[in-house]
Each structure stands twice: as structure tokens, then as C-alpha cells.
Amino acid sequence: MNKVIHPDFKGHADELTRIIDNFSTTGTMFADGRRNKIKIFPLGFGTVNVKSFKIPNIINKIVYRFFRKSKARRSYEFANRLLQEGIGTPQPIAYFENSTAFSFQDSYYISEQLNPDLTFRQLIEIPDYPEHEIILRQFTQFTFKLHEKGIAFQDHTPGNTLIKKTGPQQYEFFLVDLNRMTFHDSMSLQQRVVNMAKLTPEDHLIKVMCDEYAKLYGRSYDEVYKLMVKYTQYFSNRFHRKRALKRKLGLRKK
User: Could you tell me the fold of the domain covering 118-244?
Assistant: First the structure.
């Protein structure tokens, strides 16, 4: 097993190793997905979130063993980079990888467990949530800051931003599910809009986000809105086509 523990948590190395060794039989299930599982464990200073990435297929076993960083390692390294850039994400603690001489097996990413007030998904689903437009505009400012630093979060989707209220009309945002990111020297308007286009298909929310983003970026509202509608529709149509195909192939329940 290969393990990398953040310098601030070296004193918990034995406890963290025991958590991974006993992952399947201990801990509290937080998310039991088809591909990955997340469990919560107590640790000396509080609670940690442990994401277990499934064993990859036979080709990816070779790819991850010799040619590409594991999802756990990328999550850990990207989290550290985000924090260095002043972007919110749960504190990274460690990652663990299991492999043989010729094959990658499984991996685990450990981070601080945050208890948010809501997620961006809930902001979409609860239109009368208190201070709804304030949160939406501050989230857009957060996304603009991300783009100004050249960070394209490939999984910038509704469930992957945690939101905490920190004061009167003040909110902080934390990215999770970090293993897919790209970094640029700068980002064009099209790159920025594409990166936001999976967040919501709701036109009234898109209008607020485009209004705020256009002001921050110094471009016209119409220009930003036109691009956002174009790529939101593209991703929405692609999502529905993929889901219909999976149903036709019997890979998804109706």
C-alpha cells in the first residue's frame, strides 16, 4: 500500500491506516454509489470523510499503475492546490493506494468532513430558500474567482459545491469530488461558460448568474446569456440521450 499523509496529520498516521484497513467493516455509510462509496469515521480531532474508489477495469488497472495518477491522488493534490489558490474545499488529509507489481487495485481519499448548510443542488430545488439570489450571486462570484485563476472544475455540477453561511448575507463555498480538473494560464469566455453550463437548466437561475458574471467579466449580459443557453441546452440534450441509451440497453431502470 502506498500512502501519503498531509504534514499536519502525520501524528494520526496509525489511526488513518486502521481506517483504511477496516473500511469495509467499520464507519458510517455516507454515500453508497454504483462506482464509489463514502464513509464517515471519527478521528482524534473530529470527523473525516473517506471516499473509496472502485477497482478499475482491466485496462485502467494498467493505466493507473504506470501512466496516470489515481483518482485519490488527484483529489488530494487538487485539494491542496485549491487551498493554495484561496479556493474553498474540505481540508485534504491523506490518500491511500493499493497495487501489485503490474496492476492497480483500489484507492482512498481522506478529507475533513464538512457539515454544510446546503448544496448548490438544494439552492436549485428550493427557489424560496432564504437569501436565494444573494447566495446565487455570491456563488457566481466564487466561480468567477475560480476561472480567473485558470481553474476549470470538470465536475462543476449541482451536488459538488457545499455552502456554509458565515455571517449576515455572507456565504462560503467548498468544492468536492475533485479528481477531474484542468488548469490554464487564462480562460476564454467560451471556456468559462462551458464550465458553468452543467449547473442548472433553470432559465431564471441562468439569468441571474449571467447578469452577475457579465458584470464581473466586463462583457455584455446578452453575450454571456446567449452562450450559456447554447451550452446548457447542449449538455442537457446529451444527458437525456445518454440516459435513453442506457435504458434501451437495460443499464438503467425506467
Answer: Transferase(Phosphotransferase); domain 1 (1.10.510)
